[in-house]
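A common beginner's mistake is to predict each chain separately and then try to dock the pieces by hand. The better habit, illustrated here, is to supply every component at once so that their relative placement is modeled jointly.
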Amino acid sequence: MSNFELLSEQGLRLDGRRPHELRCIKCKLGVFEQPDGSAYLEQGNTKVLAAVYGPHQAQSNKLDLNEVVINCQYSMATFSTAERKNRPRGDRKSQEITLYLRQALRAAIKTELYPRSQIDVYVEVLQADGANYAVALNAATLALVDAGICLKEYVVACTASLSKNNIPLTDVSHVEEMSGGPTLTVASLPTSNKIAFMEMSQRFHLDNLPAVMEQALNGCREIQAIMEKEVRKHLMQMGSAGDWSNIAK
Amino acid sequence: MTTNVNIRLAIDRVNMGLLAQNQTRAPRLYTPGEVVTGQFGFMKGHGTYVEGEDIKASVAGVMEQVNKLISIKPLKSRYVGEIGDVVVARITEVQQRRWKVDTNSRLDSVLLLSSVNLPGGELRRRGVEDEQMMRKYLQEGDLISAEVQNIFDEGTLSLYTRSLKYGKLSQGVLVKVFPSLVKRRKTHFHNLTCGASIILGNNGFIWISPTVNNEADGGDGGYAQNLNEVIPRADREVIARLRNCILALAHCKMMLYDTSILYAYEESMKYEVHELLQQEAIFDVAFLTQHRLRLQEE
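With all components supplied together, the output reads:
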């Protein structure tokens, strides 16, 4: 297991957080004019842009008569990590995350409403500092909400880890990921308490799983509340500028 | 030729949020997954779904209730067509007896050969010759104005141009905005007093063109594209200014209709056309327009 203690004697983590604390989250909707929906999300130093196009007519070779085709693309900017590296779009890690993104988004989107259509989700990591998948998914969710696409509810992801003395830690940063602790990533639909996706980077004792998972789910709920607040703020700004005159009284 | 490039830091951005300070009229907002009401006695409409006992919202927006039917309308989405809407659209494909048209809606729309006025204006059966001539009338990339005639089951829109006011568009500028920013009105064709015509498509495509003389245009059924005619510089400047004004209003999420566009145009006169691309000018024009619209309403 970890060769480095993640939690100090005072109960603080490497970046000074307490075990249950999230990193600082900032988000913004509607950052682009061209796509149908877009969002920017910053969780600690992990910064992600997401853009959604659609639903639009699906390409004829992908077309599905019963439900929508979700097309994801996850990519990392050249300058996103400490080591500058040109990543071609198809590298293994990105492809894997792309698949996981699609799986989680499919659980949230009401796919049966858009037959013959396609939704494109493009996520770009500008700065990678741990929990990339979770932040990418949260940004994609915000972009979908901005695009006015029907969702069952927000799909939110959060990570959790385990310190040496079996204390679960929320929202893992890059340093913590690297120092060898196990990372559990959970994507959930927090209101209905469903899990859309779950991944473990390393083994830990089964007895600890419920505690770590609960920690991650708590993180999801907190993130959802923050996202919800931002969505309302965004709606309020959009509607108020036009004095809500497009709303039938 | 030299141009001035204006580059600035993100921190110096103009805060467009200042336009949204008056929030007194704000209705109740719903977000995905939020319970709207109990299921008993109500029917679910667009933007909602039923889970257990409750009707829940599936989009972020405001509630619209018609008797017992409850629907949630998102503030921003793809174009959702309604019969009778005026749209500006682009031909993407020529097929047998119909054109595929891009209207910014969820699925491609169709324009049937039988729902266009053939050049010459005569009404007759469409024969094989007409089918072979289709690309002569409208080819890929052409812009048209049309009206929504019908909505098929899966949501495809069927358009028609069998009226002299619809048809192929000639010289002008296309501006794309979010469909929800275009206000539904009785008429979407306007000859603005500033010297340009404007078609406000319900699908968020806006067409700005030099003022056309309606009497002269009647004979050809709207299929002539006079691309050799030179539009005078003054007219082009008016069009460019209108385009920038519309984009400014859209950037600030203000509603687009004849009055708001005209007000924005008048308020923009103190700027050069190219200055209207700068953030301060955009904000100033939008702010003054909003002020005038509010005064007018009171």
